[in-house]
Amino acid sequence: MGINFCMTCGAPLELRDVDGTMRMACTAEGCSFVHWGNYSIGVGALVLRDDKVLLVRRAQEPGKGYWTNPGGYIEQLEMIHDSIRREVKEETAVDAEVRGIVALRDLPRNIHNVYIAFAMDYVGGEPEPDGIEVDRAGFFSMQELETMNVAGFTRWLIEVALKSKNDGLIEDKAPIVQLDGHGLFRV
């Protein structure tokens, strides 16, 4: 399903060459709206406690019945590190703090998805599923994972997080230039 009308003024859109790429653009005089594409940003958590990883079993599609790391999508006006703390709390009742960004997945498709995986430090709480998105939650050892229906992407993320030599990208809480409203992460 495509976009047919301007999100700014409501006028019809037409296919037009914009900087060498065909894009839907507004036909109204004086309106410069261009539909740049459809994108989503997902976040995922890798929370470890006592050599066990926090996992949830998906109660809905996509991935119903698979064990995955907790996560979800960022909100429009939410910083990504706030998004992942919220998602972990919503899905598992566990409090965790961001240590760093350890992996990134780029999945170009109809809605281009970028997924950011965070290494997180366990702060508190016992895993309890939300009963909507997930029907089970818990900390599991690597040995226990061998007999579980763990999603392939989650297996890859766990391996990346466990074998990482550092914390990946960490939040720059004291940048050399103050950039209000920016979430800055660095090596």
Question: What would you say the CATH architecture of the largest domain is?
Answer: Alpha-Beta Complex
Q: How would a crystallographer describe the biggest sheet?
A: 7 strands, mixed
Helix coverage percent: 10-25%
Topology-level CATH name of the largest domain: Nucleoside Triphosphate Pyrophosphohydrolase
Question: C-alpha Rg, in Å?
Answer: 20 Å
Q: Using DSSP, what is the number of strands? A: 12
CATH superfamily of the largest domain: Nucleoside Triphosphate Pyrophosphohydrolase
Mean pLDDT, rounded to whole units?
Answer: 95
What's the total helix number?
Answer: 3
Helix vs. strand class: alpha+beta
**Which spans of ≥5 residues are poorly predicted at pLDDT below 50?**
none
Strand fraction equals 35-45%
Name the CATH class of the largest domain: Alpha Beta
Separation, N- and C-terminal Cα atoms:
40 Å
| Domains (count) | 2
Order of helices and strands: EEEEEEEHEEEHHEE
Based on Cα principal axes, name the global outline: globular
Pfam family, one: NUDIX
Organism: Paenibacillus rhizovicinus
GO molecular function, one term: hydrolase activity
Keywords: Hydrolase
